[in-house]
Each structure stands twice: as structure tokens, then as C-alpha cells.
Amino acid sequence: MANGFMRAVLEQLQNGNLIVDVSQLLEAAPEATVNFFQDFDANISRLESILAQQLGRSRPRLRFRHIPSFLLHAVHHMKELRHDLVGCFLTFSGLVASMSSVKVAEFTRSFECSCGARKVVEAPVAEVRPPEAGCCGGCGGDSFKDLGGAMIDYQEIRLQDTGLQNCSHAQVVLCGELVSSCVPGDLVVVCGVLRARWPNWAPKKRLMVQLILDARDLHQLHEAPRRSLVAMPPAADPWQQRRQMVTSVAAHLHGLEVPKLAVLLVLLADDLTAPRQEESSRQHSHLLLLGDPGTGKSQLLQAAGQLAPHCVMTSASGTTRSGLTFSCVRDGAGWNLEVGALSMADGGVCCIDEFRHLPKEEKTALYEAMEQQSISVAKSGVACQLRARCSIIAAQSFVPNGQSLKELSGLADPLLSRFDLALALRSQGGNDEDVIASILNQCANSTNDFGCQSPGQVELDQLKGFIVAAKQSTLAESAYDASLLLEAYYRKLRRGSLGAVFSPRVLESLIRLSRAHARLMQHGSVQLEDAIAVIFLHQVAWKSHSPETEQVLLSHFGPGCPEQIQRLDMSSDITCRKDYEVVEGAVLWCLGFQDLKSEEPKDTGGRLKGGGDRGHSEEKPSSIFEGRAFVPQIRRKGKIKERSLFSPPERCATDQGSWLNAQLAACCSSRVLSQMEEMPQKSELPKKQQ
């Protein structure tokens, strides 16, 4: 080997680290580095033997990083692994589906001939049989004395392709420092030499050679393979641009704008910028789709799988608890841990179809995974915790003769409370003429596929890139009026709950969905319009499965309300700025904000605590979106109450007056406020609407 190449390798190994940076080797000796990787399998043994002599230690096992693409063979799918690639240096990515226990394997073995000559034989990690001495190079004899050998840590993992249509697997061998460098469910990138492992020979039995990868480096990916980051161009009306993205989800389905919006919010709910080890609550949202047969539930699941950077699709029909969580498989004297669909979907989305057919005992296994985003393992002497940081989108048909959400789904309250949204898709009702026209138009154009995009919609690849870019965006501190509105809506749901249970998980769900909507609208923080849109979505979802309950608060939209907004069905989506102004006025009115005065209280130092211009106030109220308590002040019967989400209510010592209208005036247009003044008072409405 070239002196420059050896000198560059020795310089990198001076600190005792066995990692070699190939980019530095190319700068020091480019020609020698290229020749080394062209015949890597033969050159690596010679290089490690020379290093063992010069370093005066046992033979090291080098790791190589930052390898340029022209020096290796990239495998896009594991089904491309063939016998003609044996001996080549490869790299590919996949999910760790199973992992064996750590074992000790023989690395090298020394022999001494009867003539006194010694011989060191390498034991390849791919071989099952022990190394043999062969013949002596001096005397030609075959009588050797076994002097023992060097041992090395050994572990095997099984990788699975991440694509929805690919179920290929690859066996990977980890040795030395690479042992225990990953856990089941991790998405990893591995590079190494492809080898053929021969089994022990048996008479009258056909030999089946297994292809394995002798790993030389492995590092984790904290997310699915990155796509090009795409930001949507600025639009004159952001709501129309939002509608284009919503209709691009499962473009062949008509009249399901609300479920499409829910799918987009679930995909955007995860905050990739938040440190994983500091998460105090889950970042992922869960969605439950209920409906009659033929209402497009499975099509929405497939659309979510196509848009998600990483997705695992499964069906509850025939699925067991171990298929969703984990299983332990006997491996000789030990056990192998194989992960299920939830751990394999870590960092992405797990779509479960036919959720109703999942046995009751199996559904209890989802409790920890949906809330704590982890799976605890304590079985067959194996005790560990697997990550399951994924969003769950479940679809199922209605339970016959059901009236409420619990009866329609057949799910227990602890499981229902873990879903951020539950939508009921009914075959009766709605605008059937538009659906029929949409289907006939698609069938008339035989050249187009059902998944093609119509004019005015966003291309699928562009929408995928936008989702990845939006999840990596950082949201600033949220607007105070948005926090106040969500708190008031949650308190009203709690006061009106008779048969339903509204736990603090409802408020956490509203916060997650509001942050996701802010990313969808490309806002720098959660604004008032994000809170309004999420409250309206929550009302539509609640009316879809429980239309007669007191939780349906929206009943009056004022004059000039569009027809799709008044219906409150699966097509009731905000399509333009005018629709939003109508919805905003209705939401503010139903929460009782129109009775508040526009006075601004002052603190003891004479400075404003709040006001329309928050940017110039010296004291800025904290936000529930940042995990801190805030104290909104609302006038009730001539008295001021300070309320906090994390402390009991206390009465103020002085009557400072109401100032919420000044807060809302900064975000609401004059048209909305005028609509609020024209709306009838509560005393003028019938008792049913009150």
C-alpha cells in the first residue's frame, strides 16, 4: 500500500479511535484510496494486519465513514441484493426489525506446526465452521497444534425495507464497537461488504447460501430519508392555497375535505425540532375514521401512507398483540426480540385498517404506545423499552345500532380519549350530485389515473416536500388570544359534558392540532385564525358522530353564511377568507366574547398588561403552547376572575375591567366585529339554541 495512504490512516488512529474518515484519505492519497475500495475485501485484511504490527496490539476492526458515492454501490431496495454483488462494498438503509442477543465469536486463531512455524488464520464472520489451519508453508505438513485465538463481540440484526410495497429483508452482522449501536425499530444506514455464508454440510441435503452484510459502519437516522425541502409560494389568499393542498390529498375522493384536512394535520403534528429526550408530552396526534362501507376510509389511509415520509400499513384482521408491539423468538440458548408495527413506524405514521376487528385484549396494548409513545418489554428474560413515537390513523366501520361515539366505535373510554379527532363518514346525506359528477368525470377521462392531480391542485411530490419542510420549521411563542380562545372553548366543553368525558387530553389535542395548522398555513407561531380553524374542525367532528349532544356549540353563523359551512358535514371546510370571517364570528359569539368591554387593565406600576399592540408591551403573557401557565381575565357578573390551567381559580382584589376585546381587535377584522354586533343576543334565541 502507498506510504501516503498508510500515513493518513495512522494519523486518524492515534487517539485510539477505530473510525476512518474516507474524505480525509481522498485528500491525502486519492489514487490509493480509490484502488483500496475497488478491491475492498482483499485489501482490508492486509491493512488491518499491518496496523496490528505497527500499533503493537491485536488486530483492529476498522470503521469507515463519509464515503463518497463513487466509491461504493448504493442499494435502493434490499431485493436488489444478488450473488454477483458478493465482495462489493455496499450501503443501504432500513428498519431494524429484529435483533439477536450479544454473543462472542472467534476473530482469529493461531496454529503451530510440528516444524515450529506459526500460522494465524482469520475467521470470517460469515462462516459458521471454525477456521482450519490447512498446510504448512514451510514443511508442507498438516499436523498443527491449536494455540487458541482472539474473540470479538458479535450480533446479528435483520433490516426491512421502508417502502410500502417492499417487504424485503437483509441480514446484517455487527462486530466490535457496532454491537448494540441500535435498537429494534430504529431507521439506520449501514455500509459494509456483502458476503455469502455457507451452512454446515449435511448428506442428501441441498446447500442454501445466505447473503449477509459484514457491517463496517452503522448510524441512525432520526427521521425517514429526507426529501427536498419545499416551501409553498406566497399566495394572495392563504386559505385558498390551503384548500388546494387539502383537495390534493386523495384527489379522486370528492366531498371529504374535513377528513383530508385531519389527515394533513396528523402528518404535520410532529415537531422534529423539539429535542427527543426532553419531551414531556407526546408530539404526535392520532385520528379515528368511522364510517359506512364505501365511504373512502381505506383510500384516506393509503393517501396518508403516500404522503408520510415513513409509514407502516397494517390491517387489524388477523393481527395479534405481538404483531403490533413485539415478540420474543427463541435463538439457540437466547432470545431474539422482534418488533411490531408500532415500533417499526417510529418517527412516522402507523395506519391500521379494520380497527374494529382487533380483539379487546389486543387493544389494551395500544394504551402505552398511544400516550407514552413507548412499549415496555418484560418477557422471556428480556426487559427493555422500545420507542413508538408515531401517529396512529385507524379506520373501521360502524357498530350496528350505535348512537354515541362510544357505541358507534365499540371502543373503551381510555382508548377513545387518546384519539385527537374522531370523524364519522356517513353514506347518507351530503351533496350526492357533486359526488356523482366527480366520479363520472374521472371515468370519462380514461387517460387519467384516480390518483392524478386536477388543475389547481398541488403535485404529490411537492406536497410531500412541503410536509417535511413544515415539520422542521420552528414555531415562535404563540399568540395570547389563541391560547385564551382554546382555554375558553375547553372550559365550555367541560361545563356542557353530561355523558361524555372531557379530560385534559382534549386540551392537549387542541394545542397539537393548532400547532399543526400553523405549519400548514406557514405561520411563524400559532395565531388566532389557527385556533378558530381547529375549533371549527373539532365541532364538525363532534357533530358527525354525536349531533344531538350539548357539545355541538355552533348553531348560528349570521347572514351570508356559505352553504357548506352551515351543513357542518364532511365537506364543511374553510375555502377562502370570506368563509373564515363567517366562522370566526360564529366561534367568538358562541363562546360569549361579544359581551366583554374593551377596557384595558393596568398593573400597579401603571404599565399595560395587555392590549391590541402586543409587540410594544413590556410584559408579555405566557402561553400554554410553551408549557407555562397563563392567567386570562374574564368578567363574570361584575367581578374579575383570574384563571390558570395549573392552579385553582382566585378572585382579584380590585376590579380592573375587561380588556379582551382589545386583544381580539388586533387579530379580527372590522367586518367580523360588525357581524358580532348584528348577531342576536342569547336572550333572543329559542331555548334549544341557548
From TrEMBL:
A Pfam family of this chain: MCM
PROSITE patterns linked: MCM_2
Limits of the MCM C-terminal AAA(+) ATPase domain: 241-434
Keywords annotated in UniProt: ATP-binding, DNA-binding, Nucleotide-binding
Composition bias type Basic and acidic residues, residue spans: 601-621
Spans through the membrane: none
KW ATP-binding (keyword) present: yes
Top-level taxon: Eukaryota
Residue ranges, annotated region (Disordered): 601-623
Assigned protein family: Belongs to the MCM family.
Stated name of the protein: MCM C-terminal AAA(+) ATPase domain-containing protein
Taxonomy of the source species: Eukaryota, Sar, Alveolata, Dinophyceae, Suessiales
